[in-house]
Write a structure and sequence with these properties.
Strand content: 5-15%
Number of domains: 2
Order of helices and strands: EHEHHEEEEHEHEHEHEHHHHEHEHEHEHE
Shape: globular
Bound molecules: nicotinamide-adenine-dinucleotide
Structural class: alpha/beta
CATH architecture of the largest domain: 3-Layer(aba) Sandwich
Helix content: 40-55%
Strand order of the largest sheet: 3-2-1-4-7-8
Largest sheet: 6 strands, parallel
CATH class of the largest domain: Alpha Beta
CATH topology of the largest domain: Rossmann fold
């Protein structure tokens, strides 16, 4: 039996994934609206596979309860999946994680249990912040309960597949007892379970994010160079590069392709936080600094290109508002940065359409733009169409644009 605190993309996937494997799972979220929706069998966000998994497991092996007082004794692991610490000016705010820890400790569970932190935290946080926090709470860490760090590598849009079919499971532990308790739950997954120190586990998670961010910025920088040199078919060049045998069957190659820059909840934050931490420890980070700079510049370059071709009194249609296709997440989406910039330049007639995220986007950004209900409506309304998220259905944009200019920022039309 396990409990999961925080039912966002990560926590809900973790909870349903373990339930699917036959584990009795209790889930809590301080957002009562979100918790109620899930209890009633509804997913609060778009994430393929989760709706079916919820239908199979809710009130069967997965129970959403108001708080930890409703979780029975005998839970082996409490997975903390709350939002990651906000880091500003080198100072991190760990209050969400502390609050979740406090709730577990105050709930009076008697049998030994392991608190498993899944929230990404900069390397060193477990040893320098989390373990000292337990000590400050005057509790018997190591005797009454233990703590492990278990980074998550799931991709939004593919959370379910990635959790159910993981490539590796990383456990940051400092004793055999916690290692045994947590790995018992992961034995049912067909993947190696690798136990390492707390800091190594934290570091691995940031290595993963920063490497992906680097590949994205490399691709965007190369695309800029290709444009400057001229007479280069950028999409074709990247496709041919990906034909190299060393990329075969390698889904990483999706990151080596130009577009609008990386976004979402993980890569921008992880890369920035990691540079901040490493530099505060005395490391020089010129490569990752450049990765961030390149990413920040992409929407500016895209808007400069649009401005060079399209007068400000024209109607511009933006196709796609989520940060990537297949996900409903609009956080840090390139579309938002492009639209902000277009508004700054002076465009006043901006229309947008996303197959699933118009409402979430409007609520998150509140920009002064108009929304369309279909690709056809957007193409009929606008003078120019900009593809900002590569939803597969946008490949047919030519049928609706009927000769109007289409600016394909994702290089998806001729790919
Ligand atoms: N989304 C991804 O694909 C992904 C992948 C890997 C890692 N991450 C990281 O994992 C973290 C969580 O991601 P997410 O998308 O699930 O975040 P999220 O913000 O959507 O969800 C966190 C949830 O935790 C709840 N919560 C906060 N404090 C709580 C408490 N004390 N008790 C119970 N519930 C509490 C919030 O109400 C919220 O619903 C993020 O910081 C992100 O960087 C995300």
């Amino acid at each position: 039996m396990i409990a999961v605190l925080g039912l966002g993309f990560v926590g809900l996937t973790v909870a349903l994934g373990f339930a699917e494997k036959g584990v009795e799972v209790y889930g809590v979220d301080i957002d009562t609206f979100r918790a109620d929706l899930i209890r009633n069998g509804k997913i609060p966000y778009y994430e393929p596979g989760l709706d079916d998994a919820l239908a199979r497991n809710i009130n069967n092996r997965f129970h959403v309860v108001p708080d930890l007082d409703d979780v029975p004794d005998g839970v082996d692991c409490f997975f903390i999946c709350v939002g990651s610490p906000q880091i500003r000016d080198g100072n991190a705010d760990y209050s969400k994680t502390f609050h979740a820890i406090r709730e577990i400790l105050d709930s009076g569970f008697e049998d030994y249990f392991t608190i498993v932190i899944k929230t990404p935290m900069p390397p060193g946080t477990m040893n320098k912040v989390i373990v000292p926090y337990f000590k400050s709470c005057a509790v018997n860490l190591g005797e009454d309960f233990g703590v492990a760090y278990n980074p998550e590598f799931m991709r939004e849009g593919k959370c379910w597949d990635d959790f159910i079919n993981p490539s590796r499971i990383v456990l940051g532990v400092n004793n055999e007892r916690d290692e045994k308790i947590v790995s018992k739950y992961y034995k049912q997954f067909d993947a190696p379970v690798v136990s390492v120190s707390y800091t190594t586990a934290e570091f691995i998670r940031y290595m993963s994010s920063t490497l992906l961010a680097t590949m994205v910025s490399y691709s965007n920088e190369m695309a800029q160079a290709a444009k400057a040199i001229g007479d280069i078919d950028i999409a074709q060049a990247f496709k041919i590069e990906q034909m190299d045998r060393r990329w075969e069957e390698n889904t990483m190659k999706g990151y080596v392709y130009p577009g609008c820059g990386y976004g979402g909840i993980s890569l921008p934050k992880d890369t920035k936080d990691f540079v901040c931490l490493a530099e505060s420890c005395g490391a020089d980070m010129p490569l990752l600094e450049s990765v961030i700079n390149v990413n920040n510049k992409v929407p500016i370059q895209i808007c400069d290109e649009i401005a060079a071709k399209v007068p400000v009194d024209k109607k511009i249609g933006i196709l796609g508002l989520t940060f990537k296709e297949g996900s409903g997440d609009v956080r840090n989406s390139a579309s938002a940065r492009i639209i902000d910039r277009l508004l700054q330049i002076g465009y006043t007639q901006i229309y947008a359409y996303d197959p699933i995220a118009n409402d979430d986007y409007a609520a998150e950004y509140g920009q002064n733009i108009n929304y369309c209900f279909s690709m056809k409506e957007l193409c009929d309304t606008c003078d120019v169409v900009v593809i900002a998220t590569p939803w597969r259905q946008f490949k047919t944009v030519g049928e609706y644009a009927k000769g109007k200019p289409v600016i394909d920022c994702r290089y998806m039309l001729d790919a």
